[in-house]
Structure formats: C-alpha cells, structure tokens
Design brief:
The chain is mainly beta. Helices cover 9% and strands 45% of the residues. A six-stranded antiparallel sheet has the order 1-2-3-8-5-6. Strands 4, 7, 9 and 10 form a four-stranded antiparallel sheet that branches.
C-alpha cells in the first residue's frame, strides 16, 4: 500500500511545507498519514550571524538562548543539531542536518528563557567568520523512535524583538 510510515516521514529528503514569517528561524515540516497514526515532524532551522568571530579564534564555550512559549504537549526533549541548510530555507533542506546532539533541553517551564550549553560537538558547528546553522529537533526524531501521542512545544523565533533567540559565544584570540 501507499500509506506512509514513521520511517518514511523521518527519512524524507524534502519537506512538504515550509513555514516562514519568523525573524530568526524557519520550520520545515513533513506530514504523512496512515490508517492508524498521523506522523508529522517539524524541524526548526535557525541561523546565527557569526561573521564577527575571527578565523584564528579558539571557541571556549557557547550557549543558545531560546524563549519557550505558553504551551507544551507530551515529551519535549529537544536537541540542537548542526545543519547545512540553505538561506533561505527550501523544502529540500528538510534532511540537511546532522543526527548528533550538540546540546539538549527538556520540557522547560512555559513562558521562560531556556539556556542550552553546547557540547563539544555543538561547538564544532560554529562557523567562524560566517553564518552558523542549527536545527532544533525532538528526541524521537534524533533517535528514530516513532512517537505516541502529541509531542510539541512553542518556541519563539523572533516574531517580535523581545524574545528573539541568540547565540552567545566565548572565545580567545592568539
């Protein structure tokens, strides 16, 4: 039959929707249905201008600051992963990410700032003198485990200037 499975949804090479209108991020989504389940994966891509970091800099630490909105459902273990998506994001960018966690946060309180320290993998994705590209994905997507029930949360992506996400990088120069 032609019904989509979790693996079809997760491993799709392109999205069937792109949601724009965010100042600091774009969401690529792939939704598929079958008689028993509805699978939908939203991958939130965000880009940070790191052009001011000199190429000779040694990055010591970095953290991503995100604002959690008013609602959450189910399991919300979210991972920061690296991406090589295009600017602007297109449907073919859905699969342009690394399935290695660069940092994690779990179900923050609604309407609060989340600070996600990047691990050594996450630090390696910072592009000195360029644009750094990340994606936020759910743990189900990272581990390729079909979810049960609704698992989502609201994260502000710069709909206004008050709660814009930002990347804070500490580095030294020789």
């Amino acid at each position: 039959n032609n019904y989509s499975t979790w693996n079809t949804t997760r491993n799709a090479t392109s999205a069937n929707n792109i949601y724009t209108g965010f100042v600091d991020g774009t969401m690529a989504a792939y939704f598929a249905t079958n008689p028993n389940n509805h699978y939908g994966i939203n991958r939130l891509f965000t880009f940070f201008d790191t052009s001011s970091i000199p190429s000779e800099a040694t990055i010591i630490s970095a953290e991503i600051h995100l604002y959690a909105g008013p609602y959450q459902h189910g399991s919300n273990q979210i991972h920061i992963v690296g991406s090589w998506a295009n600017l602007p994001l297109g449907v073919d960018d859905y699969s342009r990410l690394f399935f290695y966690s660069g940092g994690t946060f779990i179900s923050p309180p609604p309407n609060s700032w989340i600070v996600i320290p990047l691990n050594s993998t996450g630090l390696s994705w910072i592009m000195k003198g360029s644009v750094t590209k990340f994606a936020l994905i759910n743990n189900f997507d990272l581990t390729n485990t079909a979810p049960t029930g609704q698992n989502d949360m609201n994260i502000s992506m710069g709909e206004d200037t008050t709660n814009r996400p930002y990347l804070l990088v500490s580095y030294t120069l020789p």
